[in-house]
Structures are given as C-alpha cells and as structure tokens.
Specification:
By secondary structure, this protein is α+β, with helices and mostly antiparallel strands. It has 11 helices and 22 strands. The strands form 6 sheets. Strands 14, 17, 18, 19, 20, 21 and 22 form a 7-stranded mixed β-sheet that branches. The protein has a 5-stranded mixed β-sheet with strand order 1-8-7-13-12. A hairpin with a 2-residue loop joins strand 15 (about 300-305) and strand 16. The two termini are about 50 Å apart.
Length: about 425
Amino acid sequence: MKNRIQVFENHSLVIQESYKGVKFKKKHLTALTKLNVLHGDKYFCVRHDSIKFKQYVGVIRVEGLTIEVLPKIDNNIESEAIWQKALVDMLSVTKKLKVQKVNQASVSKQQIHLLDLYFDWFLNEVQSLIHKGLIKQYYKETKQVKALKGKLEFAGHIRKNIVHKERFYTTHQAYAKDHLVHQVLDKALDIISNFTKGKYLYSKCKSVQLDFPEVSKIHVDATTFDRIKPNRKNAPYKTALAIARFIILNFAPNVTKGNEDMLALLFNMNSLWEEYVYVKLKEQEAEVKLAAEVTDQDIKYFWKSNYLKPDLVLEFESETVVIDTKWKDIGDSSPSASDLRQMYLYNEYWDANRSMLLYPSNRTQRDDFHKFDLLTGKANHHSCAIGKISIFNTDNETLDEKIGERIIELLKIND
C-alpha cells in the first residue's frame, strides 16, 4: 500500500531509510515523538535519528504515513502478512475487533490495513443503528423560540431581543435526536471522514453521514463518555460507543506544527496475549473439555494497598493451578528471578500446587514441574514449570484454534 510501513514490535525505524519503497522522514519522527509524549512515553523509545517500538502493536496514522506495528515472537516467520493476520485474528477472538468480509471486486486484501478494519466496523455498526431507527432523548437546550416555554433566561433575553419583541430566549426541554450519544458518534464519523479521504471507505462514510441526523458539534474527551449512562434505550449503541471511544480518545488533532491530524490504535501485546489465552481456555471450559473453573484478574492483598494479581487461575476439584502469560521468546533461557519469585508468591497465596510461566514459541514443549526449595518445617512444597506454546498451525500461517487444548496438555491435567 502506498504510504504504509509495516514494522515488528521491538524493531526500529530510522529517518531517511526506505522500507519497501516508503521513506521514513524527519517529520514522521518528530510527530511520533510528540504523540509518544501525549501518552506518557509508553509506545516508543525515541533516539536522535530513529524510533524503537516497544510491546505495543496496532496502527498509527501520522503525517500521511500509516505505520502498522505487528507482533513477532521468533525469527522463523518473517512474513508481515502472516503476522498481520495473526494480530487481526487475536483481536477478533478477544472481541477488540470485528472483521467484515470485504468485497474483492471493490478492494483487494493487500489494500486493507488495521485502521480500515476499525473504521469499517464502526460504520457498519452505525448503519445498523440507522436501519433499526435512531433513538430520541430528552435534553435541555437554550435558544430563541417564538412561544414562551421553559425557563426565560432574563439576561440573555434582554440582550438578544431588544428589537425582536416577538421572540423569547429560554432554556427548555427538547425531545429529539440531537443528544449526547449521537453527538459522540458524529464526532467519530468526522474523524473517519478526515482519515479516509481518497480511499474506498470515504464514500461509505459520507453515505452514513448523509443518513445520520444533523447534531450539535461538541468537544469529546473521557469525561464525555462518563456522562453517558447505560439504559434500556441506548443498549443497542453499546458497541458503536465503545469503538467511538477507542477512536476519539486516541485521536490527536494538530499535534505537529502543520494541520495533519494523528491517530494511534495500539494494544499492549502482553495484555492481548493474556486475554487470548484466557478466551481459549474458557472455550475449553464451556465445551466441558476442561474440568476446572478459569478466572482472570483475581486479586489478593498482601500488604496495605499492595496486591497480587496472577493472569489466570484454574480451579480443579483436587488442586489449583496458576498460569502467568509472558509475550516474549524465551528461547533456551531461564526465567528471570523476579518472575520466579512472583510465581512462588502466587502459589503461596492461592494455595496452588503447581504454576506455569507460559510463553509463545515456534514449538510446543514444557519442562518438568520443578519444586521450589523446601522451607524449614514444611513437609511438601509447590512447583513451577516453563511452558512454550506454538500459536500457529503446522502450516505456520494460521492461528491454532485448538491452542486451548494444547495448553491443557502442557499442564498434564489428565495425568
């Protein structure tokens, strides 16, 4: 795709270097640096002539350049297309992305990037809402009316109607489609329209905007979404509002000296890997192939406000097993001492007999469960193992849909 660079996580882009015919320029580095500052310097490591990406993957649009940051765990699979599909599939499984089939006659697969997928998802959601019928809500508005209703704003009335005695400046209730929910969706539509000019999605966006009611333009930030209270009437808007929140809060207008807007839709790959494993194990639980209850984000406090939170806890009838996911290629190395101390504490606080550090790899294997050194006065002690799991099928191109079963096998649950 023209003006697109694909780069793997933990890799770098150097100014004036070309990547498959697309040059990374000084203005791109400058804009990305400012974007990074806006997000607490968590996305990149900035150097004087390059930028190194951290564990965040996804898509960035800046100064007319689209940068796709893709996950990667080893050196055996170098294809950007394979890793892009793997990322899209993982986002789909964890409900962070809904991919619609694209008509091959209108646009080829090679012309689609992650930003398009999110925009298309949002447009489809809004189209669905329009077809079902958009809701009306009561809201207060202050404006000129020809019949007295509501509260007369006396100071404003005197100021505006010295000449026009037939008008009233009032604050009154209105029941219409120009309310906060639609104003937020309209803001997201404006952003999509801005970023899709010259692309196949631009006409689709304009078509949706034509069908969408005319509403007031407002400034939207995180507090705006807090003001939208879920209820029975706006329940169908849940997905559209979630996507709108993601798009709007990651939109940075006019960060650079020019007029180019920026958008960054990035995901922490460590968190995504944890959620992906959780979903796959929950699938096994639902299919009764896993005789355990799988929970995530379980918290136990150990000192004042400090707490422990393992990634996954599996509760069997006879034992508890803790899994901590790590998105990195450990190779033949040993886990860090801090990771092992963490697993020891998880075993202690969750009364677990076994725990496992789970890493993605190009092959599936597991070492023995090694017991932690026995403390004085204890008759038995818990253990920990290193598990490595391949995320791909044998073709090394598609994600293994049975990865949940593979993880169960690593735990030797049936032994």
